[in-house]
C-alpha cells in the first residue's frame, strides 16, 4: 500500500514539501525580526502569513497523499475507462440554410479523415 508513495518521484516530492514547510517558518521568523525592528504593519502581517502558507501547503500535500493512498491502482491501466461520446444533435428541420451548412461541414470532415463523404460523392 505504501509502496506507491515510496517511489523516487514521491520521495523527492516528500523532501521538497518538507524543505518548503521548514523554509516558510524560517521566512516567518525573519519577517518577525524585521517587524520587531520597526518594520511596520506589513512585516507583522507577513510574519503571520508565512507560517500559515506552510501549514496550508502541508494540508494540501497531506490531502494529495491521502488521495494517492486511497486510489485504486487499476485506474492506471490503459483501456480501463469507457468513454462514451455522442455528437449533439441539432434540429435543422426548420432551417434549410443551416442544414446545408452542416452537410458542407460533414463533407469537409469526411474528406479530411479520408473517408467516403456522407452524401456518397
Describe the 3D structure.
With 121 residues, the chain is an all-alpha fold. 65% of the residues lie in helices and 0% in strands. It has a domain at 3-76. The protein is built from 3 helices and no strands. Helix 1 (8-39) packs antiparallel against helix 2 (41-70). The longest helix is centred in the first third of the chain and has 32 residues, at 8-39.
Summarize the structure.
The chain crosses the membrane at residues 12-32, 44-62. By secondary structure, the protein is mostly helical.
Radius of gyration (Å): 29 Å
By oligomeric state, this entry counts as: single chain
Strand content: under 5%
Helix share bin: 55-70%
Helix tally?
3
Task: Please state the overall shape, judged from the principal axes of the Cα atoms.
Answer: elongated
Main beta-sheet annotation: none
End-to-end Cα distance, whole Å, is 58 Å
Order of helices and strands: HHH
In total, the number of strands is 0
Could you name the ranges where pLDDT drops below 50 across 5 or more consecutive residues?
A: none
The chain-level mean pLDDT equals 84
* Structural class by helix and strand composition: mainly alpha
Keywords: Hydrolase, Membrane, Metalloprotease, Protease, Transmembrane, Transmembrane helix
Protein name: Metalloprotease
GO molecular function: metallopeptidase activity
Transmembrane segments: 12-32, 44-62
Amino acid at each position: 500500500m505504501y509502496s506507491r508513495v515510496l517511489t523516487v518521484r514521491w520521495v523527492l516530492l516528500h523532501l521538497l514539501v518538507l524543505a518548503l514547510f521548514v523554509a516558510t517558518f524560517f521566512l516567518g521568523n525573519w519577517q518577525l525580526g524585521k517587524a520587531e525592528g520597526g518594520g511596520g504593519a506589513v512585516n507583522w502581517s507577513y510574519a503571520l502569513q508565512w507560517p500559515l502558507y506552510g501549514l496550508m501547503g502541508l494540508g494540501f500535500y497531506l490531502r494529495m497523499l491521502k488521495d494517492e493512498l486511497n486510489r485504486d491502482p487499476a485506474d492506471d491501466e490503459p483501456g480501463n475507462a469507457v468513454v462514451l461520446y455522442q455528437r449533439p444533435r441539432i434540429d435543422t428541420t426548420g432551417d434549410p440554410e443551416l442544414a446545408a451548412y452542416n452537410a458542407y461541414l460533414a463533407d469537409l470532415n469526411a474528406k479530411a479523415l479520408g473517408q467516403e463523404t456522407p452524401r456518397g460523392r
